[in-house]
Structure formats: structure tokens, C-alpha cells
Request: fold
Amino acid sequence: MFAYIIRRLAYVVPISLAVSAVCFALLFLAPGDPLSAVLPGDASLELIEKLKGDYGFDKPIPVQFAKWVARAVQGDLGTSLATGRPVGSEIARAISNTFVLALFACSIGFTLGLIFGTVAGYFQGTWIDKVVTAIAVTGVSVPHYWLGMVLVIVFSVLYPLLPAMGMGTGGSTEWAWDWEHIRFVILPAATLSVIPTSIIARTVRALVADILSREFVTALLAKGLTDRGVFFHVVKNAAPTALAVMGVQLGYLLGGSILVETVFSWPGTGFLLNVAIFQRDLPLLQGTILFLALFFVLLNVLVDILQTFVDPRIRRT
Amino acid sequence: MSAVADTLQIAPAAAAHGYWRSVFSRLMQDKVALVFFFILVLIFLAAIFAPLLAPADPYASSILNRLKPVGTPGHVLGTDELGRDMLTRLIYGARLSLLMGLAPVVFAFIAGTVLGVTAGFVGGPVNTAIMRTVDVFYAFPSVLLAVAISGALGAGILNALVSLTIVFIPPITRVAESVTTQVRSLDFVEAARASGAGAATIIRVHIIGNVLGPIFVYATSLISVCMILASGLSFLGLGTKPPEPEWGLMLNTLRTAIFQNPWVAALPGLMIFAVSICFNLLSDAIRHAMDVTR
Reply:
């Protein structure tokens, strides 16, 4: 068990370095030379010299990368060109808002997905199954940023029930657990939850249907086990895969919320990326992407480790 | 009774077909798939013959006719924020939107197949090198990777195509590698090698034919994702640039108009949705007809 966990954790180091390398390479993808990509428009001569030293642009690329990683490890992700503040503190302020949104979206998506998938798996081939399958196909096909717009049209424009954008009255960016704030999260969270709902429903449906068709279920029934008892076995067998899918979906919610955050002007990391794109703020873009990708890597490892607690067979492979 | 008779009649006829013929005939029996295929064909035809079909000029703006609602005489689907005819722009928009949804998957299909088959067939350090590189890209959620590359490269159709292609190469490579590894260990490959066939011959004669089907099916399932992602990039201002008609970009520029004219603003998204659901269902039908999962 411990050997497996340590092996999985050790895997984080090379993959994080490789992810950092991809993010570092973004500097060289940008048009023009890398120095001009991190330089504010009105840079003074001293600042140019300082940034040159910080990034080491006169040194070979591996040295530049090493310098960049060394600074990133200390939490220094450079300075945002758009706001002039350190990228690290910009991310720190935005990430909690993205977390709040993801938390609500997950709660909706995971609950609905698990219910839909289980019910459809139990009633495979019936109209219930067909309805769930149709919902799932629609859910993965719908452009969610458009769905967000439609929800705004229905619930904010035609029937003004919920706010269309922001996360608090008066453009507040501080979250609080009261109805005033929860009102703002309903529409973006509902929009964001559509993809995990569909994908989890689809996966769980296939899992449950497959488990129910196995011989051991017939044996359990023949033994006289109640439906509730059989359900317990289904849950136990479906849990590892379902858990893995949910982990990946949580990561996608955190990293993929940029479009929905843009639609609802939600002040999270996606909004930060949007600012970075519009202002051509490469340090901000690079830093936010690095942070989200590293978080995704950690989350995946965490899910792998959690899985071994649920299903000890995984450790051996 | 009649069901038995039907199978008895059909069985020998189906057996006489080749694999692709039987896939095709199974697809032809899937009514739902046919309907969606038909819709897609119509949208493609509309895109190709846009200059003949469209009632107006997609770039002709008119300050007087801004944001007319659906059903305005002369503008069946209304007008956009610059007074351009919506129906015209939706028809013309199909060109760029379909191109940006399909081209990256086609490029990624070619590149991913080459990489995956190479990794799977050669094995050893080559496999490790290719597949570990692929793993790195798996560490990014696909939206994030597309935004990262496009954001660094800057806006533009070509840049969006490049970034989307990069996004879809890793998953296709993974599928290609796993299928190739399976096929490579089969007896007929061993037999071909024993009878003196070189690597190139084995790949050309024995591998490609057996792996292309599953990779193709997987690639078709990515088209819908690519459509949504491509329009999403345009929606963020990273894909097509104004005044080009493209559904994602139209959705972006009309976003501010949802308070004046909500349903016109929602139309481009409806098109993205329609095309994406057609591709999804068609991909499911092809998978079913080719029986890849079994």
C-alpha cells in the first residue's frame, strides 16, 4: 500500500516538471521575442535590465527554464502586465471563487449524474434508460457557454429571478455563505454541471448495467439476497471507476470553467485567463495555466490513491 | 416466427458482403442515424452553396436595421448588432465553423495515427518517448490546453487550428498505440514476420487495415468536442477575428444584445448545438455499426 502511494507521489515530480516546461514554452510561442512578451508597454530601462536578469534571456534555454522553475517553486510567477501586481497574488484571489463555483457545480453534477446513471443502469432498455441516454447525449453536445446564455435569457431577462452576472451585489468579489451570494452562483453552477452530469450518468449507467449482468449477481439473487443487499454489491463494484471519473470531472470543472466564467463575469481563474488573453498578458496566462495544470496533476494522483482504498486490487497492477 | 425467417434470409446475404459493405448496410438500417446524417448533409450543402442561398451580403451592415427581432420582413431571422442579416451570417458561418470543427480532428487523426502506430509497433524506448510525451499533455484539461496555446499564439484562424490539432493529437495517439499493441501480438503478424515480411510491409498490409477502424471511430467522437472547443475559442476572441461570420464569434459579439433581443443572440449557439449533436449521434451509430466495442 505505502509503496504504491509513494510510487504514485514520486510520479508527480517528473510530470510537474514536464508540465512546467510546456507552460514555459508558451513564452516562445508568443509572437516576437520572449523578452517583449513579459515586458509592459511602458517599461523603464531598469525594469528591462531587471527582467532580463530574472529570466536570464542572455543565457541558454535550459538555464532560463531552471531559473523560471526556481522562481515558480518560491511562488514567484512573475508580474502581471495588465495590473502590475504579482501573478501569484492574482491567482490566490481568483482561485477561491473558482473553487466555490466548482463546488456547487460538482454537487449538482455528481448527484444528478449518479442518480441518472444508476436508475438507467437498473432499467436498461426501458423508456427511463432512453430518456437518460438522450439527456446524456444532449448534455455532452451542448456548447455550455451558449447554455449559460440561454439560462440568462430565461431566468434573468424574460423572468428576472436570478442575477445575470457577477458574484455579489455591487460587483463584490468576496464570497459569503448567504442567500444574497448563493443567488449569484445558481446559474453558472447549473451551466457548469451539465457536462459532469452527462458524463457520469453515461459511465455509471454502463457500469451498473455491466455489473448487474455478471454471474455473481445472479448467485446473490439465487441465494435470496434482498434488492437492497444486491444494490450494496453494485455500489461497491462501481465505486472505483465512478470515483476516477468524478475526479477527472472535478479537474475539468476547475480548469475548464473559463468559458462559463466569461459568460457570467465570475471573478475566478477563468476570468483571469480572459483578462490575460485580452490584454495579451503572458505572465498572467502562463502562471494561471501552470497553477491549474499542476492542480489537475495533483488531483489525478489523489484520486488514484483514493481508489486503492476503495479497491485494493488496483495496487497490484 | 417472422423474425426467425428474416434472420434466415438476411444472414447469408450479409455474410457475402465484405466488412465495409456490412458496416455500410448496418448504418443504412439505423433510421435515427440517417436522419441526423441527412441534416448534416444539408448544413454542409448550405455552407458550400452559401453565396447562392444567402439572401444578403454577410458583411453589409446597416445602422438603421440593428438588432431586428426574428420575423422582421426582409430579415427572417432578424439582424445582428451591426444590422447584418442573421440568416445570411448563419449560412456563411457554417463554412468557418465546420472547417474549424473538422480540420483539427483530420490533422490530429493523421498525426496521432502515425505516432501511435509507430509507438505501438516499434515498442521499447520509442514507445516510452512518444507515450510519456503524450502523458504530459494529458495533464492539461483540453479547454485549458487550447486556451494556453491559442492565448500565447494570439487570435487567428490558423493559430486556433494549430492549437486544436495539438489538443487532439495526444488522445488519438493513445488509442492508436493501444490498438496497435494489441494487433501486433496477434498470430498473423507473427506469421508474416516468420515468412520474411519487413516492418514496412507488416504495417502496410497487416497493421493499418486492422487499427484504422477503431482509431477512425474514436476520431469521429472528437468532432463534436472540437466544434464546441473551436467555437469556444472564437467566443473568447481567440479564433476567428471580426467581421468574419463564425458561430462562436457571432455568439460573442451578440452577447451584449441579450437584453434587447435575446433569441437572435442565441441563434448561433443553436447551430453549434445542432451540428455537435448530429456528429455525436452519427459517431455513436458508426461505432455501433462497426461493433468496435465488442
Observations:
- The first helix of chain B runs from residue 2 to 16.
- Chain B has a mean pLDDT of 87.
- The radius of gyration of chain B is 23 Å.
